[in-house]
Write a structure and sequence with these properties.
The chain is of the alpha+beta class. The chain has one domain. Helix content is 32%, strand content 10%. The chain has two helices and two strands; from the N terminus they run βααβ. It is flat and about 45 Å long. The termini are far apart.
Length: 59
């Protein structure tokens, strides 16, 4: 399982409109029906730089 927050997803998360903890727990409960281990392998949460540029992007 992976989670990558790009674009508007991060602002929706910070506003509590998306990826709310209770919603995430409900989704994980659905996966529990498969009776298999769940491995969280990646989580990407971008952070703004002090210069207002995103890493890897030219200004």
């Amino acid at each position: 399982m992976q989670c990558h927050l790009w674009g508007d997803a991060l602002s929706r998360l910070l506003k509590g409109e998306q990826f709310r903890p209770l919603d995430m727990m409900r989704n994980l409960d659905r996966y529990a029906d498969f009776h298999l281990p769940i491995h969280v392998t990646e989580a990407t949460i971008p952070t703004p730089s002090r210069l207002g540029r995103r890493r890897g992007h030219a200004s």
